């Protein structure tokens, strides 16, 4: 769990920061309304899912990373406990919370693992 600061996620979430949760694809199951889900192919490795009925954003499948990002707000019963910031150089506004800040992504998810300064 963490925060993404890239312009793409901020635009998609319509906010200054985007809260994410990452899951193995086999751990994610749509339990209701699967026939109402629309897909947008953001990149060859990322597909965003939204509700065609209400327009709500649901998740992004990151096949290149082998992970599915379920938007934190979609799981209200899940205690959101962020552990890092990604794509921090694009931050608006800067944050002071003591969490690790990465220039792009952690090495485990295909990034450089380089940290970013405040």
Describe the structure.
The chain is mainly β. The chain has a single domain, classed as Alpha-Beta Complex (glutathione-dependent formaldehyde- activating enzyme (gfa)), CATH 3.90.1590. Helix content is 6%, strand content 32%. The chain is built from one helix and eight strands. The protein has one helix at residues 7-13, and strands at residues 2-4, 18-23, 37-43, 46-51, 57-62, 67-71, 84-86, 100-101. Strand 5 and strand 6 (67-71) form a beta hairpin. The longest helix is centred in the first third of the chain and has 7 residues, at 7-13. The radius of gyration is 14 Å and the shape is globular. The protein starts with a strand and ends in a 17-residue tail after the last strand. The mean pLDDT is 91.
From the structure above, extract its key features.
single chain, 118 residues, mainly beta, glutathione-dependent formaldehyde- activating enzyme (gfa), eight-stranded mixed beta sheet, 1 helix, 8 strands
Summarize the structure.
The protein is mainly beta and 118 residues long.
List the helices and strands and how they pair.
Blueprint: E1 2-4, H1 7-13, E2 18-23, E3 37-43, E4 46-51, E5 57-62, E6 67-71, E7 84-86, E8 100-101
Parallel strand pairs: 1-7, 7-8
Antiparallel strand pairs: 1-2, 2-6, 3-4, 4-5, 5-6
**What percent of residues are in strands?**
25-35%
Instruction: Give the full name of the CATH homologous superfamily.
Output: glutathione-dependent formaldehyde- activating enzyme (gfa)
The CATH architecture comes to Alpha-Beta Complex
Query: What does the overall shape look like?
Result: globular
Number of domains: 1
Cα-to-Cα separation, first versus last residue: 20 Å
